[in-house]
Amino acid sequence: MHMKTLSSIPFRKAALMLILLCTVHQAKSQIEDFNFFDGGIEDGIALFVPYITPWVNAFGTDLNGGWYNTAKPHKFGGFDITLTASTTFVPDKDLSFDLSDLGFTNLEVVGTQTITPTVAGENENGPDLEYVVQNALDPGQEVTVASFPSPPGSGINFLPAPMIQAGVGLPYGTEIIGRFMPKLKIPSTDVKIGLWGIGLKHSIAQHIKPLKAAPIDISLFGGYTRLNSSVGFFYEPFSYDNLVDYGPEDFQDQAVDIETSGFNISLVASTTFPIINVYGSLGYSKSSTDVKILGNIPIPSYDPAIDAFNPVITDQDIATIPDISIKNISGLRTTIGARLKLAVVTIHVDYTYAKYSVVTGGIGFSFR
To answer: What is the pLDDT of residue 35?
Structure first.
């Protein structure tokens, strides 16, 4: 019996919208249809979280990058507008995961191979999964409620994220930095995405007398970024024959909302020469992601009182998915970079070493 797959509609798009416009079309064309919740809510969440976590980690890491390219705050009233792009790389150990570690309730792995790609892994299906029950009329026979391959990876093990931000100098050697993008619908898609962030940079060198005359500045920085994104989808039951209280109109408001936030606190140092400078930082970053699946979701079941040989959809099988919180990576990060300033134009590039390493580059206009 052929059943429409749930994950090919909302979850593929939900994962892909995390890559924004840079790689979404390429990845979308490479990922085939696959299931998450046909084996039940509990097993679906168990499969979804490790599958999507590498991109979630990478995007959270991106949000914590690109905040600074110098430790020196603007003078009071000075400002800059900077466009940066951070690209985070998923480490090899997170390109796959072991299905046998998930503790499925209904699903079973077919065969002895249990290693499957994450969303950042190879573009090939993982091991087959089955949800099989005994036939109530013939205990020697089985009924397959669901059968599908583990989802393939995208083949994309890096994640770019562009940012536009502005910094303004405040009194007492302090600078405030803001990021903002109103929630906008991306043309020709059903993806909506918005972002805001705020950071503060304060010069510590100004309080250390021997450093006041030296061509170096040291500052303390703290920043927080939140990204909100959503995508609508439409997934209806494969049959309405056994539904009493639900019709097509009850599946019109389905959506996936993803909220990712990142926090970064760092000690930043840089030289203060007129044209070319180097900068570096040592800090701690943390990010988190919450996923909400909105609307009614049909999940196949086995009810021998209705059909002893095939899965069915009844009113009791229409479910709402609980919110999913994904614990992202956190830890120390070390950054080293260089900045070129030509009149009011700045160009910078840096590398951040962390659990998920990041390369950042950008161009801006800086005054005072």
So the answer is: 65
Cα(227)–Cα(288) distance, rounded to whole angstroms? 11
Q: Is the pLDDT of residue 288 over 80?
A: yes
Is residue 76 within 8 A of residue 170, CB to CB? The reply is: yes
Share the mean pLDDT of the chain: 86
Q: Which residue has the tokens 């909100």?
A: 228
| Residue whose entry in the numeric block shows the structure tokens 């930043």 | 268
Q: For residues 61 and 350, give the distance between their C-alpha atoms in angstroms, rounded to a whole number.
A: 14
Amino acid at 131: Y
What residues contact 295, with CB distance under 8 A and at least 6 apart?
Answer: 251, 252, 253, 254, 255, 320
Residue 2: what residue type? H
Q: From its phi and psi, is residue 356 left (phi > 0), alpha (psi between -120 and 50) or beta?
A: beta
Instruction: Give me the count of residues in the chain.
Output: 368
Given a contact cutoff of 8 angstroms between Cβ atoms, the answer to whether 166 and 82 are in contact is yes
Q: How many CB atoms lie within 10 A of CB 316?
A: 10
Report the pLDDT value the prediction gives residue 331, as an integer from 0 to 100: 92
Query: pLDDT at position 34, please?
Result: 57
Map tokens 């890559």 to a residue: 19
- Give the list of residues 6+ apart from residue 153 with CB closer than 8 angstroms, or none: 95, 117, 118, 119, 120, 121, 122, 123, 124
In percent, the amount of the chain with pLDDT more than 70 equals: 89
**CA–CA distance from 139 to each of 90, 135, 143, 311 (Å)?**
47, 5, 10, 16
Closest CA to 97 of 62, 138, 75, 126: 126
CA distance 313 to 299: 7
**In Å, how far from its chain's centre is CA 316?**
32
This prediction has a pTM of 0.84
CA atoms within 13 A of residue 22's CA, in its CB half-sphere: 13
Task: Sort 189 into a burial class: Cβ within 10 Å, 0-12 / 13-18 / 19+.
Answer: middle
| Per-residue confidence (pLDDT) for residue 189, from 0 to 100 | 64
Mapped onto helix, strand or coil, the DSSP state of residue 43 is helix
Average pLDDT of 118-128? 91
